[in-house]
Design goal:
4-stranded antiparallel beta sheet; nucleic acid binding; alpha+beta; 6-stranded mixed beta sheet; 35% helix; single chain; Deoxyribonuclease I, Chain A; RVT-Znf
Length: 1255
C-alpha cells in the first residue's frame, strides 16, 4: 500500500485471530507493527506508534529459587517513548532489589535513548544513566535488555550470576533432544560495519579481514577480527565489544595480540595457536617470544599451545620424547611466566576415539606475567564442557564475582616493630574476668584482638599509604640545595621510609608462608607475588558435586564443603571388644605413668611456646606464637596458669579448642573434595598443651610400636619400608609360582578423620596409660569445634563426633598407636596359620601376603587394579622399562620449584638460599633408596644451574649372614635397588668390621691389660700383643677410676652412636674432600647476608662487569675508570685503589683472615655502596653526592647490625672433622670444662700421619 505498509487478508476469522494473538512478528529481521483495520478508517488514520511485546519481569520470591525465573507478560508499548530497562524495588531493612525487564524479539534500536526505529549512530541525545544501590552511575540501556542476553546491567552487583557457566561445565548428554536451556542459541542484531573498526587494521594484509557480525550468532560482541581459512586448516578470530578500547599489535595465523585499556590498567592480551606441525612450530614460538620480549607491561597469553608441560598432562598414546624441545617450559622460565591454573576437567583435548586409541591431553591454557597477576589477583580459569568439538573452551574471568565472607582476625608481625603496639596490648590485657584461668585467658585474648583491630585502623594505618607519603617527602627533600642539614634530613626520611618498606616486606612475607627465606633483600614483589599465587592455588573456583555437576558459585560451594566434612566427622557405630582380643598387653610401667602425669611448671610451658616457629598460621584467635614470644612479660603468666589449669583439673575450655580447617590441594588442580587435604589450624595455647603431651609420649613409642612401623618413631628410618617393598616386588617377578602373586596396597583415605574416639580410649587403656593421661588425650580430641575456611572466608562452627586433626601435634602419635592394633592382628593371624608370609629366599624373613585369584579379590574386596604410576611413600611403586622415564617425576618436582618468576625476582643470594634450603632436599628421599640414572642427575644439575645463572636467550637377606655383605659377591638376578646398594661398598669401605674390633685371645678383655693395684697399664703384656706404635697410643689413654662396661663407640658422633648423618660427613671428608682456601671459609662463615657474600664472591672471582672486563671480553666501551679518569677500571682499582671511592671509606683494605665480625659487615656494605655509587654516576639518574652516600652507608650498617641482634645469627655450626697437619708438623687439639666443682683440661698431639704423639 505504501513504503513498508502491508495489508493482510484472511479467509477465516479464526486465522485472523490466531495471527493477531501471536504478536509480535518480525519480517526480514524488522519488527512488524500489526493492527486491526477498521473499514471506516483509511490506513493513514491507523495509529502505528504503539505495538505489542512480550516482556520478562524478574520474579521476586525465595532467594534459592528466584534466580533465572521471571513473570512473562504481554504489554502495548509506545514506540515513540524510551523503553524501561527496569526499576529498583525498595525493601524494608534490605538493600533495594533491581527488577530487570527483558524484551522478547526486540528489533534494532538505539542504546543511547532506547527508542525503537533508529540507530545509535544517528542519535544526538545524551546517554541515560541510572544510580545503583552503591550510589554509582551505570548505563541504563544496553544489550542486556534483550531476552536473548542473560547479562545484567554493568552497575548491578547484587544480582546473582547466571547458571550459564554451570551448564557449560557440565554439558548435556546427547540422548534425545538437545537441552536448549543449557546452551541457548543466540541470534544477534545488526551491528557496526567494517568502516568503524580501528584504522590499524587497514594496514594488514589481504587475508586479514574485519567483518560486520551482522546476522552471525555472536551477540553481544560488536567487533570481529578473523583470518580466513586455508584448506582444511582452521582460522583464528577474536570478538570484542564496542565498549572496549583496543589497539591491534600483531595479527597472523598463529597469533592475535591486542592492547587493552580499562580502569584497572593498560595490558596486552595475546591469543596464540601453536602449530602441531614441527616445521611451523619453531617459527610460531619464535614470533611469540619476540613479541612478549618487547612488552614491558602486564600481559596475558592464552590459547591452544599444542604442547604439554609434563607427562602428567597426557593420557594415552606413546607420549612425547624427552629430547624434544619444550617451548612451553622455555616460555615459563625465560619470561618469568606464571601458569594461571584451572578449575574443571583436567584435559582440554581428546581425539574422540575409544579403547586403546583414546588419547587426552591438556593443550589449552592461560599464562601471564607477574604484573598481570598483581593487577588481577582474583582471576580464574574454568575449563568448560566440550560441545561438538575436540577442544574444551577456556573461560578466563579477570574479576570473578565474590560474595562477602567474614575474614578472621590475624595478628600482623609488623606490629611488633611499633612501640605503640606494646602499650595497646599491655593496657587491654589488664582486664580481669570472673571464672576459671582458661576462661580468663580466652576473654583477655578477645579483648586484646578487638583493641588491636581498632588501633590498626585508626593509628597504625596502611603500609602503602605511609610509603607513598614518605616517597613524596624524600623526592621533595632531595630537590633542595645540598647542605649538611639537608643531607641529614634526607637521611632521616630515608631511614623512616626504609622502616616502612621493611614492614611491607614483613607483611607480605608473613602472608606468603615462604619460610625458607629467613634473611635477605627487601623483596616485597617476590612475597606479594608468592601470596597471590598461593591464594589462587588454594582457591576453590569450581568443585564437582556428588551428582556429577560442577558448582561454581561460592554460595553453593560453601554449604557443600561443610556438609561433606560434617558427614566425614560423624561417628559410626563400632563393635570393638574392650580387651582388643589380648593383642596389646600393658606396656606402660607405673614409673612411666608418673612421668606422663607430671604437672608442667612455668619454665616448661615457656620453653614449649618459644620452641615453636614464630609465624606459623594461627587458629581462630588469630594470635601466632610470635605474639606470645614478643609479649611474654605481659601474657606469659595467664598463659601458664591456663595450661596448668588443664593439667590440674583435666578440663579444656571449648573456646580454646576452636579450630579452622583449611583445604590444601593434593594435586595441582583439584576437582573433588577428596583431592583436598584438610589441615587444622589450632590455637597457639592449645598447641602448647599438645606439644607437652607429645614430648612425654615420644620417648615411650619405641617400646610400644612394633618394628614394622617406622613413621614418627625416633631412631627408625621410614625409607627401609620402601626398600623392602621394592625387593618383594622384584622377587615376585623372578619367582615362578602357580597362580602368581597378589599384593594389596591399602590406602587409608581420610584415616585421621575416621578414628573413633571410643576405639582410641580402648587402645590407650590396653597399652597401660593411666586414666589421668587418657582423660587428657580424650579431652584434647573431643572438645574440638570446626569451621571450614573456603577461599579465606569462615563458615558456621560444627562439632565432630570422631576423628583426629591433621595439624595437631598429637595426631600422628595417636594414629600409629591405633594402627598398631592392625599390625598385631596380622601378626596374630600369621602365628595362627590363617595367613602365611612370603619369603624372598629360604633364609630370609617372611612377609605377610594373601594369595588368591585376581578377579575374585577385586570382586570381594571391591578393589581396583593399581595403575602403573602408583605411588608408595612419595616414589613410584612399579619400575618401568625406561629408567629415565621412571625418575622423570624428580625432574618435574625440582622444576616446579625452580620457576622462572622466582628466578626473575630473587637476587643471587635468594637463588643460593632457594637451592640450598628447598631444591637440594627434594630428591634426597629418592636418592636414599634408588640408583637414579646419571642422565636424570645431569638434568637436575642443569635445572639448578639455569636457575642460578638465569641465562638469557637470544627384604630377604642378599648375602650370607655369617659371611658378611662386604665380602660377598652380588647376585646375578639382584634388583636395581640392591645393585645400587652394592655399588656403595667402595664408598663405605672405611666402616669397621667386627673382626677389626676383636682381640684374638678369647677370654682376654681390656681390664686384663691394667694393673689394678697401681691403676696403670701392663706394658709387658701390651708389648706382647700390639706393635710399638699402638702400645704408645694405649699408654696415653687415661685409666678411669671407676669400673665401666667396655663397649664399641662410633668416634664420628659425639654420642658414640652410629648414624647415617655422621657417616655421610665422614664419606664427604674422605672421598669428596676439596682443598678450600681459608679466605673462602672466612667468607661463608662471616656475618653479612648471603646477598653481600655473593657480591664479595663476585669481586674475588673478578666476575663483575667493570669497564676493563667489558673491554677485554666484549670489545666495547672505554676501559678507563669513569670516576678518577686516571687508570683502567679493574676490580682491584675500583674498590681498593681509586681515590674517589677511597673517599667513601678510606680504611677499606684487601680481605684478610683476621677481619673481625663487625668489620666484615662494614666492609661488605662499603664495597656494595662503592659499586652502586659508580653505577649511579655512569647511568642516567638523580645526582648523588659522596656526602649523601656516606651518610646512607652509615645508616645501612647501623640498621643491619640492629636488625639482626645477638639472637638473629643464621649461621649453623656443624661438627668439625679432624684434618692432619702439614708434613713435618704436630697438631695439638685442646678442650676444657669448667664447673663449680672443678675444672678439667685435656690435650692431644698428633703427627701428620694421624698417630698420637702425646695426650
Amino acid at each position: 500500500m505504501d513504503s513498508n505498509i502491508f495489508a493482510f487478508s484472511f479467509e477465516h476469522e479464526a486465522d485472523q485471530s490466531l495471527a493477531f494473538n501471536r504478536r509480535p512478528w518480525t519480517l526480514c529481521g524488522a519488527h512488524l507493527v500489526l493492527k486491526r483495520w477498521n473499514p471506516i478508517l483509511t490506513w493513514q488514520e491507523i495509529d502505528f506508534n504503539s505495538s505489542t511485546f512480550w516482556v520478562q519481569v524478574g520474579f521476586v520470591g525465595e532467594p534459592r529459587i528466584q534466580w533465572q525465573r521471571f513473570v512473562r507478560i504481554r504489554v502495548d508499548i509506545d514506540l515513540t517513548s524510551p523503553l524501561s530497562p527496569g526499576f529498583f524495588l525498595p525493601r524494608y531493612n534490605h538493600q533495594d532489589l533491581w527488577i530487570g525487564l527483558k524484551y522478547e524479539r526486540l528489533p534494532g534500536m538505539c542504546y543511547r535513548c532506547s527508542v525503537i526505529g533508529h540507530d545509535t549512530r544517528d542519535c544526538v541525545r545524551d546517554e541515560k544513566m541510572l544510580w545503583n544501590e552503591f550510589c554509582l552511575l551505570f548505563l541504563a540501556y544496553g544489550h542486556w535488555i534483550r531476552m536473548e542476553n542473560a547479562e545484567s546491567p554493568p552497575g548491578i552487583y547484587a544480582c546473582p550470576p547466571c547458571n550459564a557457566i554451570e551448564a557449560m561445565l557440565t554439558p548435556p548428554h546427547l540422548t534425545g533432544e538437545l537441552d536448549q536451556e543449557a546452551c541457548p542459541i543466540v541470534t544477534g542484531e545488526p551491528y557496526t560495519t567494517t568502516s568503524e573498526v580501528c584504522p590499524v587494521i587497514d594496514e594488514l594484509d589481504n587475508s586479514s579481514v574485519v567483518v560486520d557480525s551482522g546476522p552471525k550468532d555472536v551477540a553481544p560482541f560488536a567487533r570481529l577480527l578473523e583470518k580466513t581459512l586455508m584448506g582444511k586448516s582452521g582460522g583464528v578470530c577474536m570478538f570484542w565489544s564496542s565498549e572496549i578500547s583496543i589497539n591491534i599489535l600483531e595479527f597472523n595465523f598463529e597469533m592475535i595480540a591486542v592492547s587493552i585499556s580499562n580502569v584497572v590498567c593498560s595490558w596486552t592480551l595475546v591469543g596464540f595457536y601453536g602449530p602441531p606441525n614441527q616445521s611451523k612450530c619453531f617459527r610460531a614460538w619464535s614470533n611469540l617470544f619476540a613479541l612478549l620480549n618487547s612488552i614491558s607491561r602486564p600481559w596475558l597469553c592464552f590459547g591452544d599451545f599444542n604442547l604439554v608441560a609434563n607427562g602428567d598432562e597426557n593420557e594415552g598414546g606413546r607420549g612425547g620424547s624427552y629430547s624434544t624441545p619444550n617451548f612451553f617450559q622455555e616460555l615459563l622460565f625465560d619470561f618469568g611466566e606464571i601458569n594461571l591454573g584451572f578449575s574443571g576437567n583436567k584435559f582440554t583435548w581428546c581425539n574422540n576415539r575409544w579403547g586403546k586409541n583414546y588419547i587426552r591431553e591438556k593443550l589449552d591454557r592461560g599464562v601471564a606475567n607477574n604484573l598481570w597477576r598483581l593487577a588481577f589477583p582474583r582471576n580464574s580459569v574454568l575449563h568448560l564442557g566440550a560441545l561438538n568439538s575436540d577442544h574444551t573452551p577456556l573461560f578466563i574471568d579477570t574479576n570473578p564475582p565474590d560474595s562477602f565472607s567474614f575474614r578472621p582476625f590475624r595478628f600482623e608481625a609488623i606490629w611488633t616493630g611499633d612501640p605503640r603496639c606494646y602499650c595497646v596490648i599491655d593496657e587491654s590485657w589488664q582486664c580481669n574476668y570472673a571464672g576459671s584461668d582458661c576462661f580468663n585467658l580466652v576473654k583477655k585474648q578477645f579483648h586484646t584482638t578487638q583493641a588491636l583491630k581498632k588501633w590498626n585502623k585508626n593509628v597504625f594505618g596502611h603500609c602503602q599509604f605511609h610509603i607513598k607519603e614518605l616517597s613524596l617527602k624524600l623526592k621533595a627533600a632531595q630537590g633542595e640545595v645540598a647542605s649538611e642539614a639537608d643531607v641529614f634530613k634526607v637521611a632521616l626520611i630515608q631511614n623512616e621510609l626504609n622502616q616502612w618498606l621493611a614492614r611491607s616486606e614483613a607483611l607480605w612475607k608473613q602472608k606468603s608462608r615462604e619460610s625458607w627465606l629467613k634473611f635477605g633483600d627487601r623483596n616485597s614483589m617476590f612475597f606479594h607475588t608468592s601470596t597471590i599465587i598461593r591464594r589462587r592455588h588454594n582457591a576453590i573456583d569450581a568443585i564437582l558435586s556428588d551428582s556429577g555437576e560442577w558448582l561454581v558459585k561460592l554460595f553453593d560451594i560453601k554449604p557443600f564443603v561443610v556438609n561433606k566434612f560434617q558427614q566425614l566427622f560423624l561417628a559410626e557405630g563400632i563393635d570393638c571388644p574392650e580387651d582388643l582380643l589380648g593383642l596389646i598387653p600393658p606396656s606402660i610401667s607405673p614409673k612411666d605413668n608418673v612421668m606422663l602425669c607430671r604437672i608442667p611448671d612455668f619454665q616448661e610451658i615457656k620453653e614449649t611456646m618459644f620452641g615453636r616457629q614464630s609465624n606459623k598460621a594461627p587458629g581462630p584467635d588469630g594470635l601466632p606464637p610470635l605474639f606470645y614470644k614478643t609479649y611474654w612479660d605481659i601474657v606469659g603468666g595467664d598463659v601458664s596458669k591456663a595450661v596448668q589449669s588443664f593439667f590440674q583439673q583435666g578440663h579444656l575450655l571449648k573456646e580454646m579448642n576452636n579450630t579452622f580447617i583449611v583445604l590444601i590441594p593434593k594435586t595441582s588442580n583439584p576437582s573433588s573434595i577428596n583431592q583436598f587435604r584438610p589441615i587444622s589450624l589450632c590455637n597457639s595455647v592449645y598447641k602448647v598443651i599438645s606439644k607437652i603431651l607429645v614430648f612425654r609420649l615420644r620417648p615411650l613409642l619405641a617400646n610400644l610400636i612394633s618394628p614394622c612401623q617406622s613413621a614418627f618413631v625416633p631412631g627408625r628410618w621410614i625409607a627401609e619400608n620402601h626398600v623392602i617393598v621394592q625387593e618383594l616386588l622384584h622377587s615376585f617377578k623372578k619367582r615362578k609360582v602357580k597362580g602368581g602373586f597378589v599384593v594389596m596396597k591399602i590406602d587409608l583415605q581420610k584415616a585421621y578423620d575416621r578414628v573413633s574416639w571410643d576405639f582410641l580410649r580402648i587402645v590407650l587403656r590396653n597399652f597401660g596409660f593411666c586414666p589421668t593421661f587418657t582423660n587428657w588425650i580424650l579431652e584434647c580430641v573431643s572438645t574440638v569445634s570446626f569451621s571450614v575456611l573456603v577461599n579465606g572466608g569462615t563458615t558456621n562452627h560444627f562439632y565432630p563426633t570422631r576423628g583426629i586433626r591433621q595439624g595437631d601435634p598429637l595426631s600422628p602419635y595417636l594414629f600409629i598407636l591405633c594402627q598398631e592394633v592392625l599390625s598385631r592382628l596380622i601378626e596374630k593371624e600369621c602365628l595362627a596359620g590363617s595367613l602365611k608370609g612370603v619369603k624372598m629366599n629360604l633364609a630370609g624373613p617372611a612377609f605377610t601376603h594373601v594369595m588368591d585369584r585376581r578377579r575374585v579379590i577385586k570382586q570381594i574386596l571391591h578393589m581396583k587394579k593399581a595403575p602403573p604410576n602408583a605411588i608408595y611413600l612419595g616414589d613410584p611403586l612399579f619400575p618401568s622399562a625406561s629408567r629415565v622415564k621412571y625418575f622423570q617425576y624428580l625432574l618435574n618436582k625440582v622444576e616446579s620449584r625452580l620457576t622462572g618468576w622466582r628466578s626473575k625476582m630473587l637476587s643471587w643470594a635468594g637463588h643460593c638460599t632457594m637451592i640450598n634450603s628447598v631444591v637440594s632436599a627434594i630428591p634426597v628421599p629418592s636418592f636414599s633408596t634408588f640408583d637414579v640414572p646419571a642422565s636424570i642427575c645431569n638434568k637436575l644439575d642443569a635445572s639448578t644451574h639455569r636457575f642460578w645463572w638465569n641465562p638469557k636467550k637470544t627384604s630377604g637377606s642378599k648375602y650370607k649372614v655369617r659371611g658378611g655383605w662386604m665380602r660377598h659377591e652380588p647376585f646375578k638376578n639382584a634388583s636395581s635397588t640392591w645393585r645400587a646398594i652394592e655399588r656403595l661398598r667402595p664408598v663405605i669401605n672405611f666402616l669397621p668390621c667386627p673382626k677389626d674390633a676383636s682381640v684374638q685371645h678369647g677370654s682376654l678383655i681390656v681390664s686384663n691389660l691394667i694393673i689394678q693395684s697401681s691403676k696403670s697399664w701392663n706394658v709387658p703384656l701390651l708389648t706382647e700383643l700390639f706393635d710399638p706404635v699402638s702400645v704408645k697410643a694405649i699408654c696415653r689413654i687415661p685409666i678411669p677410676l671407676a669400673y665401666k662396661q667396655d663397649k664399641l663407640v662410633w668416634v664420628a658422633n659425639s654420642k658414640g652412636e652410629f648414624s647415617m648423618k655422621s657417616a655421610t660427613k665422614v664419606i664427604q671428608a674422605l672421598v669428596l674432600a676439596v682443598p678450600c682456601d681459608p679466605v673462602w671459609k672466612l667468607l661463608w662463615k662471616s656475618e653479612p647476608l648471603k646477598r653481600l657474600k655473593t657480591f664479595i664472591w663476585r669481586i674475588d672471582s673478578d666476575t663483575l662487569p667493570t669497564n676493563l672486563k667489558l673491554h677485554l671480553k666484549m670489545g666495547i666501551g672505554d676501559p678507563c675508570c669513569p670516576l678518577c679518569l686516571g687508570a683502567e677500571e679493574s676490580t682491584v682499582h675500583l674498590f681498593f685503589k681509586c681515590p674517589v671511592t677511597r673517599a667513601i671509606c678510606p680504611h677499606v683494605c684487601l680481605p684478610s683472615i683476621e677481619i673481625a665480625s663487625h668489620t666484615s659487615i662494614q666492609m661488605a656494605f662499603t664495597l656494595e655502596t662503592i659499586w652502586a655509587f659508580k653505577n649511579h654516576l655512569v647511568h642516567p639518574g638523580p645526582e648523588v653526592s659522596i656526602l649523601a652516600t656516606v651518610k646512607e652507608l652509615e645508616f645501612r650498617i647501623a640498621e643491619h647490625v640492629g636488625a639482626r641482634g645477638p639472637g638473629c645469627s643464621a649461621n649453623t655450626h656443624s661438627s668439625a672433622l679432624w684434618h692432619p697437619p702439614d708434613p713435618g708438623f704436630i697438631k695439638v687439639n685442646v678442650n676444657a670444662s669448667v664447673s663449680s666443682l672443678g675444672s678439667v683440661l685435656s690435650a692431644v698431639a698428633r703427627s701428620d700421619s694421624g698417630q698420637v704423639v702425646r695426650a
